[in-house]
Amino acid sequence: MPPPKTSYVCLPCRASYKQLPDADRRRVCPRCAKDLVHVGSAFAAPRRRDTEAWRTLSVLLHAGVRFPKDCCFGGPGYRPRTLREVRERMTYAARTGVPFARALVLPELPSSGAAGGPVRRGRPGTRSAP
What is the pLDDT confidence band of residue 111, given thresholds at 50, 70 and 90? Predict the structure, then answer.
């Protein structure tokens, strides 16, 4: 059985590559020659033309969130898929003092933050129906 491969991405090229893990080896993109980012073995790349998904992925990776395979459940757990979900978690982190990387991986936000009020889910200045 061959050794398992793990995923690396190039954010400027929006490309993903599966390679053997080796901590001593520097990985570069074959297209642009910039460094590849190790994302983990449970990563599923979005389509190249899906710019919003790649922007979301960029925020996750710059916050230190990765996609390791969990031995018991088979996946990395919850990860936001849209910029709206990222913004909601960013607001929650700012209001409660929870580290941003931790707020990004919460499957559901608590209904009320530590700042006293409920976490708003709509756009600023809009009202939701009762």
Answer: confident
* Owner of token pair 């608590």: 110
Residues 6+ apart with CB under 8 A from 29: 10, 12, 13, 15, 17, 35, 36
Q: What's the CA gap between 77 and 95, in Å, rounded?
A: 24
User: pTM value?
Assistant: 0.75
Q: Helix/strand/coil (H, E, C) string of the chain? A: CCCCCEEEEECCCCEEEEECCCCCCCCECCCCCCECEEEECCCCCCCCCCHHHHHHHHHHHHCCCCCCCCCCCCCCCCCCCCHHHHHHHHHHHHHHCCCHHHHHCCCCCCCECCCCCECCCCCCCCCCCC
pLDDT tens-digit map of 93-103: 999 999 999 99
